Amino acid sequence: MDLYARLEEAASYLRRHTDFAPRTGLILGTGLHGIVDDLQLHMRWDYSLLPHFPTTTVEGHNGALLMGHLAGEPVVVLDGRFHYYEGYSASELTFPTRVLCKLGIERLFISNVAGSTNPAYRAGSVVVVKDHINFQPDNPLRGANDNRLGLRFPDLLRAYDPNLRAAAARQLSHLKQPAHQGVYFGLQGPNLETPAEYRMIQRLGGDLVGMSTVPEVLVANHMGVPVLVTSLVSNECHDTDRLTPTTLEEVLAVAKTGGERMRALWLAMLAELVTERESGDEDT
Length: 284
Ligand code: HPA
Prior knowledge:
Layout: H1 3-17, E1 24-28, E2 40-46, E3 64-70, E4 73-79, H2 90-93, H3 95-102, E5 107-116, E6 126-134, H4 162-174, E7 181-186, H5 195-204, E8 208-210, H6 214-222, E9 227-236, H7 248-283
Parallel strand pairs: 1-4, 1-5, 5-9, 6-7, 7-8
Antiparallel strand pairs: 2-3, 3-4, 5-8, 6-9
Helix pairs in contact: 1-3, 4-7
Hypoxanthine (HPA) is lined by residues 113-115, 192-193, 209-211, 234-235, 237, 246, 251.
């Protein structure tokens, strides 16, 4: 079965079960799961119930697709994402993202945690991604292109939507936080980087480094959906003479406190979308 047919099957499964029409899609990375508590839940499916979703052999929680209202906005949420380092191909791990796009979302918000190679970004801060450098070894667009999904050679000049970035910067300053905009350097992981690699990333123009996000951004752009990415800085790796080992516990602890900032940012942005739409409706 080709990609288009698999997507149709997954999307029509969801449509058969609900007529809920989400306008914004959300991918929750490490640190942002808490935003689910704010969701006025309409429907929830474990990924294992959904046609063609990646499966995992790891026991327990595999992730779920949720629909509901968040700050008044109808959203569809991927709570749990897949990574290349887990063994999935870039095409497999982006299938859930493509399903959200197929459902007709008007924009996609993506979150992640990342190391900062920019001395201005402190651990715990939120950075709006303005561009990326892709050093991941696989590309979800590799292989035969289906013109019904998008172009063979998608342009990436506006891969990170300027209007969404401006809206995020505006809300960050309302929240009295620095409105950093940086370049995300995508690597495959799962190991972190050597000091020489952190220096390379800095010299090549990366401000943030991480192991996710780039494949999802590529498929959303392929399907014409505007993207916002916000990164939570979990560890500082700009001064390589003073690096200390990064542990998962440390990353998760920072993600917990910093995650509250990201949650406040996303809720404010969603509320603004609703307000803008309502005032637009009144004008017409
Ligand atoms: N490198 C790569 N990925 C990461 C890092 C890092 O330092 N921190 C969080 N994710």
